[in-house]
Every structure is written in C-alpha cells, then in structure tokens.
Write a structure and sequence with these properties.
- The structure is a single chain.
- The chain is of the alpha+beta class and 340 residues long.
- An eight-stranded mixed β-sheet has the order 4-5-3-13-14-15-12-16. It has a three-stranded antiparallel β-sheet with strand order 8-9-10, with no helix packed on it. A three-stranded mixed β-sheet has the order 11-18-17, with helices on one face.
- Strand 9 and strand 10 form a beta hairpin.
- The protein is elongated and about 65 Å long.
- The chain contains eight helices and 18 strands.
- It binds flavin-adenine dinucleotide.
- Flavin-adenine dinucleotide (FAD) binds next to strand 1, helix 2, strand 12 and strand 16.
Amino acid sequence: MGCASALALAGRGADVVVLERAVPGAEASSAAAGILGAQVELHGRAEDAAIFLRARDGWKTWAQALREASGVDVGHKVSGVLRVAKDEPERADLAREAAWQAGQGLRASLLDAAQAREVEPAIAPDVVAALHFPDDAQVDPPALLRAMMVAIARSPRITVRAGATVQRLIVEGDRCAGVVLDEGTLRADATVLAAGSWSSLVPGVPESLPAVRPVRGQIVLLEERPPRVRSIVFGAGTYVVPRGDGRVLCGSTMEQAGYRKEVTAAGVHAILDGALACVPSLGAAQLAGTWSNFRPHVAGHGALVGASPLPGLFLATGHHRNGILLSKLTADAVADAVLG
Ligand SMILES: Cc1cc2nc3c(=O)[nH]c(=O)nc-3n(C[C@H](O)[C@H](O)[C@H](O)COP(=O)(O)OP(=O)(O)OC[C@H]3O[C@@H](n4cnc5c(N)ncnc54)[C@H](O)[C@@H]3O)c2cc1C
C-alpha cells in the first residue's frame, strides 16, 4: 500500500518519502498468494462487488504500466478460478452462489463434473461440480514488489528510506504534521498510514479509528515438474494457485496468533490435506518452501482508505484478504484524497 500510494502520488506531481522499518515488501505484500479473486472472494457481499470488479479489471493496465516503468513482468494472468464441490450440500452452496452472481450480472458458470474436468483436468475424481469464475486472475506478489521498487527507484520524486521505523506521528494543533523516526523527524503536508497489521500500533494514530489486527496466513509452495495444474482451484478452506511455470502456491490458514510469524505443523497439515483433496497429483510435487505473514484485518469493517479523522493523516490499511487485488485502486484513492 505504501509503495503503490507513493507511485500514484508521484505520478501526480507530489514529492514522496516511503518509510519502511525493514525493506519494502518485507511483510504481507510479498507473502500473498496474489489471487485477484474479485468474484470468488465476494461470498454474497453485494456492497463490495463494484469495487472488487473495478480493481480486478484495472489490473491489466496497471501490470502493463509497471512493466513499462520497471521492465519487470508481475505475472498478471487471467487463469480463472474453479471452486469445487465434493458432495450434494457443497454443490447446493455453489448453485446458490451461481444464482447470486448471475443476479449481480457477473460471469460465473455452474459446471457438472465432466465440464469442470474440461476446465481443469487435474481436479480430484470425487469432485461432483464446480463454480467457474473465468475472469478472476492472479499476479506474482514478489514480482509486483520488485516492479514497484524499480519504478520507485527510477522516479525522481520518490525517496525510499528502508530501515526507518516510525516511532510516532507528530500531532500539532489537531493536525498530523509528519512523523518521528529513530533518528530525527520528518515533517510533511500529508502522512499516509500504510503500516499493514502494525497500523494501530503507531502512537498518535487517532483512537477513534477501528483497530487493525493481524490474521495469520500460512502458505506452502510446491514445485510440479512438469507443470500440470492450469486453473486456480478453491476447495473447502484451501486454495491452489499454479503460476504456470511449475510453482504451485497452496494456502492458507486464517489464524488469530498475534504476531507469531510461524509455520506450524498443523497449518502445513491442513493446507496440504486440503490441496491434495482438490488436486491429488500435487502429492508427487516437490515441497519447495513455506512461509507465513499477517493480513491486516479490521473486524466488522472494510479497508481504511482515504482521509482520517486527523487532518493531515491519510489511510491505506486494513485490506485483509484482498490487499493485492485492491492495491492500485487504493493508491489512486489515496492520491485523490491527499491532492484533493
Ligand atoms: C498468506 C497470505 C495470503 C494472501 N493472499 C492474498 C491474495 O491472494 N490476494 C490478495 O489480494 N491479498 C492477499 N493477501 C492480503 C494482502 O497480502 C494484504 O492485504 C496486503 O499485502 C497488505 O498490504 P499492506 O501494505 O497494508 O501491508 P504489508 O505488506 O504488511 O506492509 C506494511 C509494511 O509496514 C511496515 N511497518 C510496520 N510498522 C512500521 C513502522 N512503525 N515504521 C516503518 N514501517 C513499518 C512493515 O515492515 C511492512 O513492510 C494475503 C495475505 C497473506 C498473509
């Protein structure tokens, strides 16, 4: 959110400093699976449909702009998502979801077992039906962060201070006037809070803002040789994301674990159990890595974006499961709010 907002602001003529206590992309944004799941993530929330769709549909242009600005391909692919059902109650759920999506004017097809296998031959033999979202897509988050960093490095208007921890906001006369760092202060006309799951821990952030809390997610990376899976597959509590080059990300847990950045035996067990139940051939794939990180979640609330109750302070946080999907849209909204 910080890097994307900096690029949007600089693109409109502002001078920006990105402050990051580690390196940009150190946390959730590089850990994400990168699913642009505008439809599969809706779950009947009509109020999010327009913004999720707009975010997903804007990605093609943004991926191309980032490639032109950086030379880095962010791996944008419209690979589609298949949500699979294994029994009649799950099929009935998919049928209800299909009807709801159709009522919203969205493209989603309820497929029988044979049709589902045509879309993704690798799905398990006991899949009885699937809901296909052909327009949902993906990007590769580490590549996205690299592309943004190269674009930022080439921008004369953006400075990155990696290793700079914000200790607190400077609040003067009911206005945010910048931040206090480990070493010195930085004064600014506008300050954007984009500290992910740590956003509520920055002293000076208005207490009236809803709290942002971490929801841990673990990921298992498999390497399939040769690559077989083509489509993103969602099963009960699990997803499988093939990158197209043999890498297959399997995720993810949703855990209240504070800031314990651990990969647990139970987490890996649940993820692999779910992934292999959807795509059994992954059982022969090589285990290539594991990691975990924190989704910034605001209970009972969507993301916090734009002006805050404290003049001079702007928000770009709390995007929970869909921060990669919503990054460019958020950055543009932040730039609109900051520059009027
Ligand atoms: C396992 C997992 C899978 C996910 N999958 C998807 C997905 O498929 N699709 C999708 O759209 N979204 C996904 N997400 C969600 C997405 O990753 C997040 O919503 C998004 O990356 C949040 O971005 P952010 O910039 O707010 O937070 P972060 O990327 O966490 O960045 C916050 C940054 O602030 C820095 N910081 C914190 N405090 C300070 C301070 N005091 N001073 C200086 N710097 C500070 C941190 O070091 C960090 O780098 C997933 C998340 C996880 C964990």
